[in-house]
Amino acid sequence: MKVNEEFNVTVEKLSNLGFGITKIDGMVVFIENACPEDKLLIRIKKVNKNFANAEIKEIITPSSHRIEPFCPMQKVCGACQLQFIDYDYQLKIKQEIVKDTMRTIGNINIDIPLPVASPEIKEYRCKVQYPISQTKVSKRLLAGYYKPKSHETVNIKYCPIQPEICDRIINFIREKGAQLGVSGYNEQSHIGELRHVVIRYSKYNEQVLLTLVVNSNKISNEINELSKAIYNEFNDITGICINFNTKKSNLIMTDKSECVIGNNYIEEKLSDKVFSFGSNSFFQVNPKSAENIFEYVKNYIKNNFKNPSIFDAYAGVTAFGIVLSDICEKVVSVEENNEAVEWAKKTIKNNNISNIEINNMDAEKFFEHSINNQIEKFDITIIDPPRKGTTEKTLDYIVNITKNKIIYVSCNPATLARDLKYLLSKGAQLESIQPFDMFCHTYHIENVAIIDLKDVNK
Fold first, then answer.
1. Active site residue 411
2. Euclidean distance between the first and final Cα of the chain, in Å?
3. How does residue 344 score in pLDDT terms, banded at 50, 70 and 90?
4. What is the pTM of this model?
C-alpha cells in the first residue's frame, strides 16, 4: 500500500474518533467523513506500520444512513463530525463505539443499550468558545471554530447547534469590534487584543453571559467601548466579563476575570434546582441532556436506597449533590476550585438546601484524611472526572470510603473502560452502563456506569 494509491472499499464501522474503518489486505484503513455501509473510492493519504489514513475520492454507493448535513459548513468546520449521518443511526454507532471500547480496552463484555437521545439536536449547545483572529490586509475580524487538524479559523456566521442569539452576538462583535479598532489575536506572533469570545446561554431564562478574553492585563478603551456597545444592543445579555490571558498557550481562559457590566453569573435549571455559575465554571453544555442523566441517577438511587449518604467527588458546582439532596440523608462534596465552590454555596443557599457539606480541598487529601481518621463511609460515591479519567490511587481511596455503589459518569469511553477494568480486578461488579447523547452529531458520548462494591475486599 502506497500514498496516493486508490482502492474501492466498503466501510465496516466507525472508530471511537469518528473515522470510517475498512480493511485492505488485512491492514486497517481509517477514512474521513465515511459512513458504515458506504461503498467508496478512496485515496491513501498516509501509511503507518499498522494502519493507514485515507480520504474519499468518490462515493460510489452511499449508505442508506447518509444524509445531507443541515449545516453548510459541516465538512469545513469539523465540529460536527457525524452530521452527515441520520440521527437515529448516530445513536446506534455510539452504542457500538461504547461496546467495542469496553471489550478492547477493558476486556468487559456487557450489554450496552442505545444511548438516551438528546431532547434537542439543534440549538442544544449552550457554551460557545470562538477564537478570534484577523485578516492581514482588510483587518476583518474572524470568529469561528478551527479547521480540522489546524488552528486556521473558519469564519462561522451561522451555527445551527447553538442558540440563534449566539450567532447574532458574534456577528455584532465582528462588525462593531472592527469599527472600534479592536484587533484579533495572532497565535504565531502573540500579537492582537481579542483572543476568544465565550458565550454561556441559559435554557432556563434565555439569558446570556458573555466573556471577552483579551491578550492583556488591563481593559483597553476599545474593549471597554465594545463591551458597552454589545450590552446596549442585546437585551438578552445579563452581564459581560473580561478575562485576562497573556499566556503563550492554547489555554482559552485564565482564572483572572473582571465583570465590567451587569452580572458575573448566569442561571440554569436542572431537575427542580436552579444553579448559578460563572463564565469559567464547568457546567454541562447540553442542559436538557444533562437533566436526563441527573434524573437517571436520581431514579436509580430512589429505587435502590432509602435515605443514603452520598459522596460527590470532583464535584465542580456540586450539581449531582444538589440535585440528589432531597432523596438522601446527607451529601458531602469535595472540589478544589475556589470559584466552583463559591457558586455551589450560592446555589445551595438559593435552593434552601441544608444537608450538603462542601469541602474546598484537593480530593486525594480529603480521601487520606477520611481514611486516617476513620470517618464514616458513604453508601454511594459519585465521580464525574475529566476526559483523562482518574487514577488507580484515587479509585483505591474511593473503594475504601464507599460501602455500596460507585456511580461513575464519564465523557470518555476509553478512560472509563480502563478505570472499570481496574475496579473489576479488585472484585467490584459492573452492574450496568447507560450511554447518553450529550454531544449530538459528534463522536463523543457520555456514559453512566454503576459499580457494585459488595464483593470487594477493603
1. yes
2. 53
3. very high
4. 0.93
The neighbouring-strand residues paired with 275 are 268
CA atoms within 13 A on the CB side of 113: 13
> pLDDT tens digits, residue range 150-189?
778 889 999 999 999 999 999 999 999 999 999 999 999 9
Helix, strand, or coil here: 201? Answer: strand
Q: Which residue has the cell 473582571?
A: 258
CA distance 330 to 283: 23
The residues that bridge with 361 in the sheet, in sequence order, are: none
Q: How far apart are CA 278 and CA 264, in angstroms?
A: 6
| Residue 142, CA distances (Å) to 149, 173, 227 in order | 18, 10, 18
Domains of the chain, CATH where assigned? 6-66 (2.40.50.140), 100-118+286-452 (3.40.50.150), 127-270 (2.40.50.1070)
Distance CA 312, CA 159 (A): 35
Give dist(CA 55, CA 40) in Å, integer.
10
Q: HEC profile for 425-448?
A: HCCCEEEEEEEECCCCCCCCCEEE
**Burial annotation 79-92 (CB, 10 A radius, 16+ → b, else e):** bbbbbbbbbebbbe
Pairing type for strands 237-244 and 194-201 reads unpaired
d(CA 323, CA 447): 18
User: Nearest 5 degrees, angle CA 174-CA 180-CA 184?
Assistant: 50
Distance from chain centroid for Cα 345: 24
At residue 194, the 3 state secondary structure works out as strand
Question: pLDDT per residue over 289-339, tens digit each?
Answer: 999 999 999 999 999 999 999 999 989 999 999 999 999 999 999 998 899
Work out the angle at residue 221's Cα, subtended by the Cα atoms of residues 256 and 191, and round it to the nearest 5 degrees.
65
Please tell me the distance from the alpha carbon of residue 276 to that of residue 20, in angstroms, as a whole number: 41
- Give residues with Cβ within 8 angstroms of 290, minimum separation 6: 270, 284, 319, 438
The grid coordinates of residue 450 equal: 454503576
Active-site residue, selected from the candidate residues 77, 166, 411, 440: 411
